[in-house]
Amino acid sequence: MSQTEKWNQLTTEWAESLKKAKVRQAIIDDKMHSFLRGNGCLPTEEELKMVEQLWEKHVQARNRTNEFIQSVLESYIPTD
After folding, report:
1. Measured between alpha carbons, how far is 65 from 48 in angstroms, rounded to an integer?
2. Beta strands in 1-80, from DSSP E residues, in sequence order
3. CA torsion angle for 24, 29, 35, 41 (degrees, to 10)?
4. The model's pTM
5. Which portions of the chain are predicted below pLDDT 70?
6. Per-residue pLDDT, 80
7. CA distance 30 to 27
8. 47 close to 27: Cβ distance less than 8 angstroms
9. What's the DSSP call for residue 63?
10. Which of 20, 14, 7 is nearest to 63 (CA)?
């Protein structure tokens, strides 16, 4: 796989994980907002665990992206 293909794969993975986490977080935030205004129910512990897992997947995807950047940087550093 070329560096460009790898980069595209990593950034797509990162963007998708971010989108999923943000959507689920927004749902929980909306539920909490409604509850505090007296118009709804609290988010469940299951929902909170799910969103935490999604954020963790996002962090892992970002870390893989950063590791790729670091490896490319290192491959272009001149050696003595």
Report:
1. 26
2. none
3. 10
4. 0.85
5. 79-80
6. 61
7. 5
8. yes
9. H
10. 14
Long-range contacts, 16-19 (Cβ 8 Å, 24+) = 17/54, 17/57, 17/58, 17/60, 17/61, 18/58, 18/61
Q: What is the pLDDT of residue 54?
A: 98
Predicted confidence at residue 14, as pLDDT, reads 96
Helix axes 3-36, 45-75, angle to 10 degrees: 150
The model's pLDDT over 3-21, given as tens digits with 9 standing for 90+, comes to: 999 999 999 999 999 999 9
What pLDDT was estimated at residue 51? 97
Q: What is the dihedral of CA 36, 44, 20, 40, to 10 degrees?
A: -30
Q: Provide Rg for the chain, Cα atoms.
A: 18
Question: Which among 19, 72, 23 has a CA at the least distance from the CA of 64?
Answer: 72
Least Cα distance to 11 among 75, 79, 66, 76 occurs for: 66
Task: Show the tokens assigned to 48.
Answer: 């909170």
